[in-house]
Write a structure and sequence with these properties.
The complex is a heterodimer. Chain A is built from 23 helices and nine strands. Chain A is α/β, with parallel strands linked by helices. Chain A folds into two domains: 183 residues, Rossmann fold (3-Layer(aba) Sandwich); 366 residues, no CATH class. Chain A is elongated and about 80 Å long. The model of chain A has no long low-confidence stretch (mean pLDDT 91). Chain B is mainly β. Chain B has one domain: Roll (SH3 type barrels). Chain B has a six-stranded antiparallel sheet. The longest helix of chain B is centred in the middle third of the chain and has 6 residues. The chains are: A alpha/beta, B mainly beta. Chains A and B meet through α3, α12 and β9 of A and α1, β3, β5 and α2 of B.
């Protein structure tokens, strides 16, 4: 039996799904968190039901890729659990009536039931059930309230024999139902509502946005640096490095397998970044250098997501982004891309037009550095002075804006206007924040470690076979001529295709000047996305889009790398 | 009964309320309806960004942000001066 969770965006379907199945999925407080579907199995029932978390939609006439996914899924369902935001009964019931026409057995979950109370809304759920003729269960997915009852009542799901109705007729019907089941008492503005209004008003909103960004960067750096300085670096240097030194001695201090496992000795000693062994650099980069920043970044991002701040930022930035051919909501895929480009590119599915999706995905893969790359840049370039880190970020921001302006002129098609729902501020539920942080952190490690290990092995082999020397010779005109980097940097640029963090680590072993480090970091950030983002980019944009994206990327990297080399 | 006049959402002042009387058709306007903004509904404007930026309104239990062009297509009846 296939059970679909269907409803408007941001009604809590993903939180609901996690509760029913025990499967962790990312849940947030903004419309469009789920862009694909996730499957899981019902935890409690005897006959295993398969539950599918479907992206949210306002109507059954899709307006973006994520909604298309939702409508396609409907054909597969045996039962629908229609999840409603109880604080928004009228609009949610419009979709309910559309769903009813599909002739699939359905039950209703009135989610966010707890929110109705402090908003002065009271709903007669029994009366609603009577009027609709299908089971209605009040729920609070975040806390788990009502979940058991939903499962118990799935067998009561019913098909209503209804004739095809027009939209105006449906709205009229919705109006009649709401009038009978809902009463609203006027409540004074809460501080959350006041803050919500202030953060979307231009005069107060822009300073608040600046403050939020500044605070976010400060907190990410504070947590990231703190974890590295007080936890990970001491662990690696005091505990792990002596072990590795013993291993190095036991292996005789040199040779192929020595170099594969612990790496080369730098001035007679092992170095956690420069040695480049699987057990030294291969573990230090993911755990010692990148993980702390990944945790810090996703903690802050998760908080802003669950609070409901991101759609407000979209409204504030809409004007600027329209000049780049995209609308304000593009800021959400872009921010996700700062963690990892892959979910960022996937999240472009919430955008309506193909043109926008192409521009945003291209901008992400060129000018939005992932957390792994950023962590290495902060670690390595930051040693030379914070001003150099600022140059790297400043350059990427300028590149992001300039490429956007150019693409807006040359890419055909239209950019629709912004039209989004602004969710109320909610206190981020700890359980959801923790679960999301855990998923994203584990996701990073699962993705990074095998590729890093394989990468280091391959590099050692290629060095032993002198392949890099030949590559370096071929790439010399560009790498040395245009970018002003030593020939050895070619290897790092090639490795950037596998993993950016590893590539920056390789730059660290080349004794570059501060200027060269900046050029190298920017070139690595812009040039070819890592293999994982490359594949996703191809899948989401199609071959033609991918080609276009790559041409933009190559031209931009050559121009920006050369310019930076001239200036610095 | 006070005077009534019809203006677009784009012309409303922040904090002003009115009742939707007409929505012109156009790209994306069907979605506007599905999101709960349709004739007969009471709307309150919350804010508008500088330079014809998006406009935020409250309608029913929801806040919506919509582009300036869309806001120009929605006529509301407000109390006149």
């Amino acid at each position: 039996m296939k059970i679909l969770l269907v409803g408007n965006p941001n009604v809590g379907k993903s939180a609901f799904f996690s509760r029913l199945t025990g499967v962790r999925v990312i849940a947030s407080n903004y419309p469009g968190t789920t862009v694909g579907f996730t499957k899981g199995f019902l935890k409690i029932a005897d006959d295993a039901g398969e539950i599918i978390d479907v992206p949210g939609t306002y109507t059954l006439e899709p307006t973006c890729k994520a909604e298309e996914v939702a409508v396609e899924m409907l054909g597969e369902g045996d039962v629908i659990i229609n999840v409603l935001d109880a604080t928004n009964l009228e609009r949610n019931l419009f979709l309910t009536l559309q769903l009813v026409e599909k002739g699939i057995p359905m039950i209703i979950a009135l989610n966010m039931w707890d929110d109705t109370k402090h908003r002065g809304i009271s709903i007669d759920a029994e009366k609603l059930e009577e009027l609709l003729g299908i089971p209605v269960v009040p729920t609070v997915a975040v806390s788990g309230e009502g979940m058991k009852k939903v499962i118990d009542r799935i067998p009561e799901a019913r098909i209503l024999p209804l004739p095809g109705r027009t939209h105006p007729e449906m709205w009229a019907e919705v109006g009649r139902i709401v009038e009978q089941v809902q009463t609203v008492v006027h409540r004074h503005h809460t501080w959350r509502e006041r803050l919500g209004d202030a953060s979307i008003h231009p005069l107060t909103g822009i300073p608040i946005a600046a403050l939020v960004l500044l605070a976010s960067f400060t907190i990410v750096r504070f947590i990231g640096e703190g974890l590295i300085g007080f936890v990970f670096e001491p662990l690696f240097e005091k505990l792990w490095l002596p072990l590795m030194t013993d291993l190095s001695d036991a292996l005789g201090g040199s040779g192929f397998w020595h170099d594969v496992l612990v790496g080369e000795l730098i001035n007679g000693e092992l170095d956690l970044i420069e040695s480049f062994g699987m057990l030294t650099t291969g573990l230090f980069i993911p755990f010692g250098a990148v993980l702390p920043y990944v945790v810090a970044f996703y903690l802050v991002l998760g908080f802003l997501e669950d609070l409901g701040y991101l759609p407000r930022m979209a409204v504030l930035l809409d004007n600027l982004l329209h000049r780049m051919g995209i609308h304000g909501y593009s800021i959400i895929p872009t921010l996700l891309g700062m963690g990892c480009n892959v979910p960022g590119i996937l999240a472009t599915r919430i955008l309506e037009s193909k043109r926008e999706r192409f521009i945003v995905a291209t901008l992400i893969s060129i000018a939005v550095p992932c957390a792994a790359l950023q962590a290495m840049v902060i670690g390595l370039v930051g040693d030379e002075g914070i001003q150099y880190v600022a140059i790297v970020y400043g350059t990427l921001i300028v590149v992001w804006i300039v490429i956007g302006l150019i693409l807006n002129l040359i890419v055909k098609g239209f950019t629709p206007e912004l039209l989004i729902e602004i969710p109320p501020y909610r206190l981020p539920p700890l359980r959801i924040m923790a679960s999301k942080l855990w998923m994203r952190t584990i996701g990073f490690l699962r993705e990074a470690i095998p590729v890093l290990m394989a990468g280091i092995f391959v590099i050692t082999v290629l060095y032993a076979l002198n392949v890099f020397d030949r590559l370096a010779n071929a790439a010399k005109p560009v790498v040395s001529g245009l970018f002003g980097l030593p020939e050895d940097a070619t290897a790092a640029i090639v490795i950037g295709f596998l993993r950016k963090d590893m590539a920056i680590g390789m730059l660290g072993g080349l004794d570059l000047t501060s200027g060269q480090l900046v050029v190298g970091s920017v070139v690595l950030a812009m040039f070819f996305p890592c293999i994982a983002s490359f594949v996703v980019l191809g899948k989401e944009l199609g071959l033609k889009g991918l080609m276009g994206s790559i041409i933009v990327m190559l031209v931009a990297t050559l121009v920006v790398g050369s310019l930076l080399n001239l200036i610095l | 009964m006070t005077d009534r006049k019809q203006i677009t959402i784009a012309q409303m002042e922040a904090g002003q309320s009115g009742r939707v009387v007409n929505i012109d058709s156009g790209r994306g306007m069907k979605r506007v309806e599905a999101m709960g903004l349709r004739p007969g509904k009471r709307v309150t404007k919350i804010s508008g960004m500088f330079m014809r930026g998006p406009i935020t309104i409250k309608v029913g239990g929801t806040q919506l942000a919509l582009g300036f062009g869309m806001a120009q297509k929605v006529m509301v009846e407000v109390a006149g001066k």
